[in-house]
Amino acid sequence: MHILKTIDEIGMWRKSIDSQPCAAIFTMGALHEGHIELINVARKHTRDVTGRDPAVVVSVFVNPTQFSDPGDLESYPRSLETDIAKCRSAGVDAVFAPSVQQMYPEMLQVSIEPGPLGSTLEGRSRAGHFSGVLTVVNKLLNLTQPNQAYFGEKDYQQLTLISVMARELNLPYEIVGVPTVRESDGLAMSSRNNRLSAEGRLVALNIPQALYKIRDEVDSGVALQQALEGARKYLDQQPGVELDYLVSAGTQLQETPSVGAVRILVAATVEGIRLIDNIELEIS
To answer: What does UniProt give as the signal peptide span (predicted)?
Structure first.
């Protein structure tokens, strides 16, 4: 497995694989089983699409431009050697782990703005977040030049905006969403979960439980808005849960349709740690 730490090294590696298909997964490290699932799905899906075994590249880069809170950036977990070992065990071909200086050798003068969608939901409370995400993802796409790049559906707004960016800017890369991987207790896998105490983790379980409550009620015939309001009240009543939003939207985060596929998205804080989750359900 190749360990690449500079722009020149990732460029030479990309040239070395030549016409071999390439599958990319972009991470900020602290890899967990959700990331390993991305790697496994990426390898299989790109092989199915291209008919050839792909070279799989994983980036590990804590991107400072997507953090509005310096404290959040400082406390973000970093475990590069462990991440490299996990990638090696998963059969990854190359890990790209650049420094901030490599990715941003000088102050950025050009960035990608996400438009109106970037100021809703996560963007409402995290100023500049999605501009930082889209800019670094665009850089990573152009450096790795993958056939497909894979992103988890847990960060659904991020996935949607990256897909829009690729489509509107005519980027020649396929963006593929991968379903959220959950812990055995239902909590969506996230590196932030490791910062929860045992008690906080139990409190956090109320977040996916609220989503399942909505799904079950809608499946039984309860109106979506009524189910949403009931779930908001449920979360508001849970000690230790600070609800930011619990909303519905279309699958492209447009206005909620009256029938068809709908996304339910939630963000809440537990023990000072922001947690997000979402599920899809069908309105008949």
So the answer is: none
